[in-house]
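Annex B.
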Amino acid sequence: MTDGDGKEKKIGVWGMVVVGFFWVHGGIYGNEAMLMAGPPLYVFIMLGIVPFVYSLPIALIVAELSTAFPEDGGYVVWVQEACGKVIGSHHAYWVWVIYVVDAAIYPVLVANYIDTMWPMNDTQRGLLAVAIVLGVTVINLCGTDVMVKFNTVLAIVSLAPTLMFTAMGLPTVSLKRCLATEGDVDWTLLVSWILWLYCGFFSLGTMAGELKEPRRTFSLSIAILFPAVLLLNTLPLAVALGLDDRLEHYSAGYFNVLAGRLAGVWLDSGFQIGANVCLVGLYNAAVLTAERSLFFLVNTQYGDALDTWVAERAAAGGTGRILQTLLSTSQTGVAPLYILTNAACAAVLVWMPYTLLVEFSMLLSVPSILLFMWSFVALRVQRPHVDRPFLIPGGLPVAVLITVIPVAISIAYAAIITTESSFQDEASSEQRSRSSNGGLPPIFQVISMLGIIGMGLLVHGVVVLIERRRQGQALRLSASGFSSDRYPGVTKAARHGSEGTSWLPPPPPPNTP
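Amino acid permease/ SLC12A domain-containing protein: predicted structure tokens.
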């Protein structure tokens, strides 16, 4: 595979902001349903606190590690650097599953949304979702520059209705309505929702290998994105409450109604367009992470062997040249083969039930987050002399301290889901299903997480057994005096020790039968 050492750095501050926008925010569409989880005061407190104790530490850690290890893949790279190839490979596989499944959600949502305006059957909705996947894939295959321009258009179109709604509605904001406390609080739903809103900062390192001046790019991007996300999650909600404080009215899509009430049909239509464009941007953001996670996983496991095989095929011409093109990273940042592979996966997944996609890999993010935090601290200890252009001050004590709250929140979330899956009664399960738009019971998250981890362990075990069998066959052949020069099935690795010195007997003379 073509490595990224010599590829041109194409993403500057603006590119990072427009691509990162869909990782860390994407839009306010659907956020109004947060008021189903509790009274406004509790919602605003959580919206104000969580970014500083959860998102900001993550953003700073990502900035430090991205500038110290500027390679595409983000935290899949850092976990492998800190924990070794075995754990790193399993983690890269988890991240790939998380994001390839997450990516498939958004084309389905677009199809479902359009279905409310122009009714379609299941096949038509599925084909529309596949068309969205293919359209974004074509754009990403055109190269990083085109992808950044595409994201710029998506960000402007999805953000414009929100900015107009907020600016026009600010005079209606009522502090009294924002501080209301009447009503019950569903802490599990509220915390889950807030964490989902602010968890995207993990992905900011995904394209670290493609950034111009990483320190400057990360510093300015975080300085722009962090306050922007904080304001976009709070101000439109305050405007909405100023227009209507009846919490029972708030469900996904109610922003559209309020926009029409505030400014007329044109802003209502703007919200509908913005919501769909936002979903396309969220798909692209998720698939960018999935592509680079899969690329890193395959490259670290089989990169050298694949390089050799492709070079041999390319020298022979024909399909070898095609393979070389599919594995080149010169234009797209990640080899087109992985862009096409993830597109194929998404095109299949969009036919699956929406609720299954939403909850399939949610809990799996917890062990991934814990490994990320561990790797940050471990790399401070293991690699103290690595150049860190962006360095969080305070030494190791501060490095440990800023991981405490994100780790505690992640463990608490896992404990809540596990407890609910074990002890939630039928009535409360039905209530949660209704509040989450028909969501599956919490036990599904536990089962799916264990299934994904178990599948990774199974594949790893099979690969190890196959490799040991190959080595055993090579040893038996070598003990019989066979040579890999005469018998190509014997691998080079089997003929040499770890230091490269031959430990097999010399091959027999040429006249030996």
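The mean pLDDT is 83. Residues 33 and 251 are 4 Å apart (CA to CA). Further annotation is deferred to the next reporting cycle.
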